[in-house]
Write a structure and sequence with these properties.
Blueprint: H1 10-17, E1 23-29, E2 38-44, H2 65-77, E3 82-87, H3 89-95, H4 97-110, E4 118-122, E5 132-136, H5 139-142, H6 144-167, H7 173-176, H8 182-191, H9 202-208
Parallel strand pairs: 1-4, 4-5
Antiparallel strand pairs: 1-2, 2-3
Helix pairs in contact: 2-6, 3-4
């Protein structure tokens, strides 16, 4: 699939034709970092919407920080229903990243404030209290609701990691967002792990043994 392809409402329209009314797109951010939480978002976009900013929505990884924030601010200002689900690094250590990802997605749906009757999920199968759902590979590139969720989750997690950079200076969390960059790994060896590091992940586990 071309990286500049635009996500569409095709999946939402298929669900509407099948009789579903309130359709939420779900995506997560933060499976790969060695520090910080995994964060999911659920967003409900109506297929009848004609906001100009909808045409700018892409998978969050394809957008600049500035554009992501602009779209997030538009979602907030237009009162688009969205929910955030956060699972901490310590809980990731307890239950594993796969289960933590699912848990964050369920939390995001619970925090929507609206009860959806259908879920469109990026690449993950989710059993959410009997709500019908569809897992879509590369859903953040194909489906507008999922792409919007990827943006919301990314903006929220990035904001959290900026705060953690203040709480734990020296690791470069403001820049690396908890991913294992060279600077991050060098500082991890020099300073040792923080409470927000994922001790079940090999790079942190191996280094923590020497502390």
């Amino acid at each position: 699939m071309k990286s500049n392809a635009k996500p569409t409402f095709d999946e939402e329209l298929i669900a509407r034709k099948s009789g579903y009314f309130s359709i939420a797109g779900i995506d997560e951010v933060g499976r790969g970092p060695i520090a910080g939480p995994v964060v999911s978002a659920a967003v409900i976009l109506e297929t009848s919407m004609f906001f100009n900013w909808l045409s700018k929505i892409r998978d969050s990884k394809q957008l600049s920080h500035k554009r992501r924030v602009e779209i997030f601010d538009s979602i907030v200002s237009e009162n688009i229903p969205y929910g955030i689900g956060i699972v901490s690094s310590s809980e990731i250590d307890d239950i594993g990243i796969v289960e933590a990802t699912r848990k964050s997605m369920i939390k995001a749906v619970d925090n929507l404030g609206i009860n959806p009757d259908f879920l469109l999920i990026d690449a993950v199968s989710l059993d959410k209290h009997g709500i019908e759902s569809k897992s879509i590979i590369k859903g953040d590139q194909l489906c507008l609701s999922i792409a919007a969720a990827s943006i919301v989750a990314k903006v929220c997690r990035d904001s959290m990691m900026l705060e953690e950079d203040y709480n734990y200076p020296g690791y470069g969390f403001a820049q690396n967002k908890g991913y294992p960059t060279k600077l991050h790994m060098d500082r991890l060896r020099e300073l040792g792990p923080t409470p927000i590091h994922r001790f079940s992940f090999a790079p942190v586990r191996d280094i923590s043994r020497s502390w």
